[in-house]
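=== RUN LOG ===
request id: a7f3
mode: sequence -> structure
chains: 1
length: 149
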Amino acid sequence: MSDEDLDQDKMAAEWAAAMAEQDDASQDDIDALLNESGSSEPAPERMTLDEFQPAERGAKSNGTPDLDVILDIPVRISMEVGNTEITIRNLLQLNQGSVIELDRLAGEPLDVLVNGTLIAHGEVVVVNEKFGIRMTDVISPSERIKKLR
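=== RESULT ===
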């Protein structure tokens, strides 16, 4: 038997002993240790998993997720006109008036990205002297989830 095998056997035995000790410890023992640590605060009230109500876990009483919890989270939305690859040499030679040819045809829909994930295609419009985008094709939620995988 090699030294490495002996080390692994010793480590396995130590883990087994630690796991056996952990199985022997009850919640009362853990609470007693916490109280001995000198904390002046009372131990928090313990609840079993069955005592939790679905609404406390972000779900409605009928078991469906409560989406109101996430509706105010800000996300970054961006529009991609197109892209291309250039060498660093060409990048360093760019100056005012340079033209970069993109991989997309003129008039082709733009990609609408939310946090970098494609969610729709659209076309550029002008609204109150500002650019905007009109959604022409929104990708279904199931297709968006497939792209995340």
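=== NOTES ===
The first helix runs from residue 3 to 24.
The mean pLDDT is 77.
=== END ===
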